Amino acid sequence: MTQHAITVSGLRRTFGSGRNAVEAVRGIDLSIAPGTIHALLGVNGAGKTSTLELIEGLARPSEGEVRVLGMDPINDRAVVRRRTGVLLQRSGFVADLTVRETLQMWAATVTDARPVEECLAMLDLEDRAGTKMRALSGGEQRRVDLACTLMGRPDVVMLDEPTTGLDPESRREVWRLIRGLRDEGATVLLTTHYLEEAESLAHQLSIMRAGQIVRSGSPAQIVADHPSEISFTTPDAALPAMAHGLVRHDGNRTLLHVDDLQRELSELLRWADSSDVRLDRLIARTASLEHVFLAIADEREPAQPTPRILEGSDR
Amino acid sequence: MTTLDLAPASRRVTRLARTNTTLLMRNRLTLSYALVMPLLPLGLLFLGDRGNVDAASGVIAAGFLMALMFPIYYNLLSMFVSRRDELVLKRLRTGEVRDVELVLSMALPGVAIMLVVTVLTVAVAMANGLPFPLNPLLLLIVVLMASAAFAALALWTASWTRTAEAAQMTSMPVVLLGTVGLLRPALPESAQDWLSLLPGAAVSDLLRVAWFGRPAELGTTTRFDFWETWSHSAAALGVLAAWTLVAVWLARRSMRWEPRS
User: Fold this and answer.
1) Alpha-carbon separation of residue A283 from A240, A260, B143 (angstroms)
2) Assign residue B213 a region: left if phi > 0, alpha if psi is -120 to 50, beta otherwise?
3) pLDDT by residue (tens digit) across B149-162?
4) Mean pLDDT, range A178-200, rounded to an integer
5) How far is CA B254 from CA A286, B79, B90, B110, in A?
6) Which residues make Cβ contacts (< 8 Å) with residue A42, sequence separation at least 6?
7) For A110, which residue in chain B has the nearest alpha carbon?
8) Is B240 helix (H, G, I), strand (E, B) or coil?
9) Contacts of A143 (CB under 8 A, 6+ apart)
10) Could you tell me which CATH class the domain A227-286 is placed in?
11) Using the beta-carbon criterion (under 8 Å), do A95 and B96 form an inter-chain contact?
């Protein structure tokens, strides 16, 4: 019935040439339904931004095809740009302009722009309107940036790490805004390395590693086939053989990976009770996106330390 | 399609150019360079003997070349480099505005100053007993073509200028290219012919033809009429056009919109 808002097939992107060539995007397929929020998730260097730039039409793919609203973002540039809003991971403003002047400058480039005052209100920037850009905090600049992104009432919004560097309160504010966009029917494609952000916002996730999408689906689907975990300080007594599951040791802790958390936990507690064993610092939890993500990120190079998924505020 | 695109494109260019003009006005140092440097030589008009066309045309040419160097060339160079390094250009390029429109909007305030300087120069010259330009249309063509050439040279220079501070050094070759023609009278004739091939020299020769109806050589009694100014400007116009084409070609192939990572 409906056409996808964004489709990508066989997408590849190579930087450099000859022996120095690096393939940052290695064959990506994506279909994003209109009115949904889709998150590209991955550690730094996984190829999220490189992929996004191809979809935004800022660079030409070495192979493959991108369609945004059924059109080619480079060949049909004028029409596509009028209906999309882009937020770069890092961008800049003229330091000598005030917030209002910055928005007016951006409005000069937008067909049928939202009034500047409306943009100020939308991003809660009214009392900063007369402030020079150079005097704004990082979070405030990000909000001005977002106001520019949304000024043309875009049908498709592409956000590269929209909340990186924001304080928790501003982050939630941006989440609210993104949900608002979806409620008005816009399609949102965003990249993030905050797992809770992806989990709480996105209908669909694509987890990227080394230029490829290695897992995709809804957050629930992705988590579903991943085992739950029980952990506790390893007791002196030997554990009973677990009927279903995997036992691992991590320092002085024992970790059990089980499929049926309730049944296995009950069994464990009954054993502990009857054997008079104390399970110190007992934790039982259903798999979270974080577990899955870490497992995926580690998959091929298990020797690597934990990936740096929650940096972010340092840039 | 092209005609449909033209209206929004020119709206974007004029509105962005207006913001860039505001910023130029706000930057006192750049503004004073842009206005004072071209007008400074005109003061000499009041000192020399009135009506000496050779001296006056030299002074006026110096003013024009300063206007090409400061509001057009150096202003665009430093604006482009600093906006590029601050990722302002990268951000703007994600929107509807096209590259050529961005460039135009940054060059136009300088061109406007160039035109203001031209008008002021004519006024000051007439106040000193010099005639109104003989062929104002030719003069306008020269001003616009030279503006395009030096704006394009600014973009080319920007492509290998790392920071706005570095522009003070990297601008030197083009500044020489633009101004060394003024030294011709002091040099042997064999060198003069070669120097006449430089863009700044072509501008000052064209100025003499278009304004005073005189050939490039000083001290002659030759006078062209309006129609002769066209034919006698052909060679220098050709030189200027060639520089403009080369500059645009250089700018297009070296254009860099993001800082080197």
Assistant:
1) 18, 15, 79
2) left
3) 999 999 999 999 99
4) 93
5) 55, 17, 16, 22
6) A48, A191, A193, A207, A208, A209, A297
7) B96
8) helix
9) A123, A124, A125, A170
10) alpha beta
11) no
Out of A58, A107, A108, closest to residue B94 by CB: A58
Q: In this predicted model, what pLDDT tens digit does every residue of A34-47 receive, in sequence order?
A: 999 999 998 888 99
Query: Is any Cβ of chain A less than 8 angstroms from the Cβ of B92?
Result: yes
Which of A15 and A296 is assigned the larger pLDDT? Answer: A15
Question: Tokens representing A309?
Answer: 């998924």
Structure tokens at B249: 């070609």
* Location of each CATH 3.40.50.300 domain in chain A: 35-52+74-215
- The 3-class secondary structure across B28-42, one letter per residue, is HHHHHHHHHHHHHHH
> What ipTM did this prediction achieve?
0.89
Please give, one letter per residue, the 3-state secondary structure of B167-226: HHHHCHHHHHHHHHHHHHHHCCHHHHHHHCCCHHHHHHHHHHHHHHCCCCCCCCCCCCCH
Chain A contact present for B93, CB below 8 A: yes
Q: Which of A109, A146, A150 to probe by mutation at the B interface, max B CB count within 10 Å?
A: A109
Q: How far is CA B51 from CA A35, A129, B54, B120, B142, in A?
A: 75, 56, 9, 18, 23
Is B6 in the A-facing interface, judged by CB distances under 8 Å? Answer: no
List chain B residues with CB under 8 Å of A95: 86
Q: CB distance B86–A106 less than 8 Å?
A: no
Q: How many residues does chain B have?
A: 261
Between CA A244 and CA A74 the distance in angstroms is 53
Task: Out of A109-118, A256-265, B107-116, pick the least confident.
Answer: A256-265
Chain B hits for A145, Cβ within 8 Å: 91
Select from B96, B97, B261 the residue whose CB has the most chain A CBs within 10 Å, as the one to mutate to test that interface: B96
Residues of chain A with CATH 3.30.70: 227-286
- Among A90, A94, A110, beta carbon nearest to B23: A94
Using a pLDDT cut of 90, give the percent of chain B over it: 72
Interface residue of A105, A112, A134 to substitute, partner B, most B CBs within 10 Å: A105
* pTM: predicted TM-score of the whole model, two decimal places: 0.87
Query: Looking at domain A35-52+74-215, does it have CATH number 3.40.50.300?
Result: yes
**Distance (Å) from the alpha carbon of B253 to chain A's nearest alpha carbon:** 17
Q: CB–CB of B87/B259 below 8 Å?
A: yes
Partner-chain contact A148 B95, CB within 8 Å: yes
pLDDT beyond 60 at A309: no
pLDDT of amino acid A17: 85
